[in-house]
Write a structure and sequence with these properties.
The chain has 597 residues and is mainly α. Among the domains are: 249 residues, Serine Threonine Protein Phosphatase 5, Tetratricopeptide repeat, CATH 1.25.40.10; 138 residues, Tetratricopeptide repeat domain (Serine Threonine Protein Phosphatase 5, Tetratricopeptide repeat, Alpha Horseshoe). 66% of the residues lie in helices and 0% in strands. Helix 6 runs parallel beside helix 17 and helix 19 packs antiparallel against helix 20. The termini are far apart.
Length: 597
């Protein structure tokens, strides 16, 4: 058996344009929803007006509405084949496969040769158990690369639907000697033999996956294998498989729940994961979507949507589609698919963590907190949950709770993450936020050492030292060093500008802070600093404008003393005391950096 869990990836010597005509990739970032009917839309006065409304929705990535407008344009008499093409592709990407198949056939009649037509129509044929029609649809594919790589998987399961096991296995055997398809071949061989009731043959196929070091095993495949061995009364073997891979991974919650599910199951109450030709074709579609994930996101997404149409119970496909939607900045749609995964599924935990992280990234912190607190109920000692709860409380400006959770996270730090400097860095920020500066300083110095002087830590510790009027020479050097290592980081540029301001170099400070404002146009602290620099540079009206702008911004607004800013707008800023530092020593140290002091 293998010694480590590998990520399932089959590399094809294919280009997307070779298998899928360029028309297949006409849209940016498709998605899918759970709805089976297209949303109704208000009807503009003409087909052209409706089409334009569809284009606007399309550009805004509201693909469900865009598809509805395109369909309405066709109903109003639009004849442009491009509109039909847009309609069936968007319908498919949104999960409206039945409607997509209708317009795909219309497009084919109009001369469209896009291979997605046949994918969509074949999927609809299989959904309705129209197996002869599905075979006819596949025969319309003429592309040699496609026929040699993907066609055998679909044909095998379609013949299974026709209850022709010999023909099904014969079709699949075309992949036996294709090195890039070998893992898929043995997975589907085992699934087909299991479907036909050939237990010993299925066992042989699955054992090949487990013993051949050249084949790869995904978590989803591991679920298929353990499902099989549990059902045939070999639960101990299934548990051994999981324990081996669990031992070499940090997926405690995922593998732990899988193990628990196996232990609580028995051969007479465990249903097959793939118990129909529809689910077999869905598995093939999902596998193909996984292949394209690494180099053609659009293709991967529509394949996964087709797969879920045939088998919505595939939790791995739900997570995969959600992740694709997140990548395409469709977070609300992604949440629908993360939430479609049942709590008893091993991947549920991972999906909910992704949802919480997404809400944190959007600064929707109340929703993030709700998700994480719910996970904490069932996983009170999980490092990921504890750390992200701490982060959420820190972002909510509730440092006491943040510190409590950071400390809990430290106690539950996994061995493989014991050098994780980000935890110490975040803890230092929370202590500083809670006005516990000595503890903050200690935590930040630990982070500095563990991170090998990471620029973010250099910047933060240097900045806070200056804020507390401590270690001026070292603080300045650290900020300059951080900038030298990461000159495009807006926060570090801001610190550099503020350091120059504290040194009394106002003209230089203005130039740097103006650059920082370009990198961080929504950051309140940057504009407060820029206002101060303008004031000391004699540009008083501009200073008042920047201070007022700082009051209107939300990013890092919690770091501002708004009353002080209002006083500055009214009466101006006092000239700050020039920072005391050893210039000759600093100049000497800066010779090691690529900077002109």
């Amino acid at each position: 058996m293998k010694n480590s869990l590998k990520i399932f990836l089959v590399i094809f010597v294919l280009l997307a344009a070779g298998v899928f005509n360029s028309c297949a990739l006409f849209w940016a970032r498709p998605t899918q929803t759970n709805a089976e009917q297209v949303l109704p839309v208000a009807t503009p006065l003409s087909a052209y007006g409706t089409y334009l409304a569809g284009r606007v929705a399309h550009i805004r990535q509201d693909y469900n509405k865009a598809a509805a407008y395109y369909i309405k344009a066709l109903e109003l008499g639009a004849k442009d084949p491009d509109i039909i093409g847009r309609a069936y592709l968007l319908l498919a990407s949104e999960g409206h496969i039945n409607e997509a198949a209708k317009y795909a056939q219309d497009a084919e009649s109009a001369g469209d040769t896009n291979n997605f037509i046949h994918f969509i129509v074949m999927t609809e044929n299989v959904k309705n158990a129209q197996y002869d029609e599905a075979l006819k649809t596949l025969q319309k594919i003429k592309d040699k690369a496609y026929r040699e790589t993907f066609l055998p998987l679909f044909e095998a399961w379609i013949y299974a639907g026709k209850n022709e096991p010999d023909q099904a296995l014969k079709k699949l055997s075309a992949l036996k000697n294709a090195s890039d398809m070998k893992s898929l071949y043995y997975v589907h061989l085992g699934l087909l033999q299991d479907y036909f009731g050939h237990e010993e043959e299925a066992d042989k196929a699955f054992n090949t996956i487990l013993t051949d070091e050249n084949l790869v095993l995904s978590f989803h495949t591991l679920q298929i294998l353990t499902n099989f061995y549990t059902r045939i009364g070999q639960k101990d073997k299934a548990i051994d498989f999981v324990n081996e891979y669990y031992e070499h991974s940090n997926g405690e919650e995922v593998f732990g729940l899988l193990l628990n599910n196996i232990r609580e199951s028995s051969f007479y109450n465990t249903p097959r994961l793939i118990d129909s030709p529809q689910k077999g074709v869905a598995e093939a579609l999902f596998n193909i979507g996984t292949v394209f994930r690494t180099f053609q996101i659009d293709v991967s997404q529509i394949m996964t949507a087709l797969s879920l149409y045939l088998n919505p119970d595939n939790a791995t496909a739900q997570i995969s589609l959600a992740d694709l939607l997140e990548y395409n900045q469709r977070f609300d749609n992604a949440v629908e698919h993360y939430d479609a995964v049942a709590p008893n599924e091993p991947l549920y935990f991972m999906g909910q963590i992704k949802v919480a992280l997404g809400y944190m990234q959007q600064h929707n912190l109340s929703k993030a907190l709700d998700r994480l607190k719910n996970l904490e109920i069932h996983h009170p000692d999980n490092y990921q949950v504890l750390f992200n709860l701490a982060e959420t409380y820190r972002m909510l400006n509730r440092p006491k709770q943040a510190i409590q959770y950071y400390q809990k996270a430290l106690k539950n730090l996994p061995e493989e993450e014991n050098n994780d400097w980000t935890l110490w860095y975040a803890l230092g920020m929370a202590y500083e936020q809670n006005q516990q500066w000595p503890k903050a300083e200690s935590a930040l110095q630990t982070a500095l050492q563990k991170s090998n002087r990471h620029p973010i830590v250099l910047n933060y510790l240097g900045y806070t030292w200056l804020k507390h009027n401590q270690n001026s020479n070292e603080a300045l050097y650290m900020i300059f060093d951080a900038y030298n290592k990461s000159p495009e980081n807006g926060h570090i540029i801001d610190s550099l500008g503020w350091a120059l301001y504290r040194m009394g170099k106002y003209d230089e400070s203005i130039k740097v802070l103006e650059r920082a404002s370009e990198y961080l146009p929504g950051n309140a602290v940057v504009y407060d600093h820029l206002g101060d620099a303008y004031w000391q540079g004699g540009r008083h009206e501009e200073a008042r404008f920047q201070w007022q702008h700082a009051l209107d911004l939300k990013e890092d607004a919690e770091a501002l003393n708004k009353e002080i800013i209002r006083r500055k707008i009214e009466s101006g800023a006092q000239t700050p005391a020039t920072l005391q530092y050893n210039e000759s020593l600093l100049v000497e140290r800066l010779k090691d950096l690529n900077l002109n002091f």
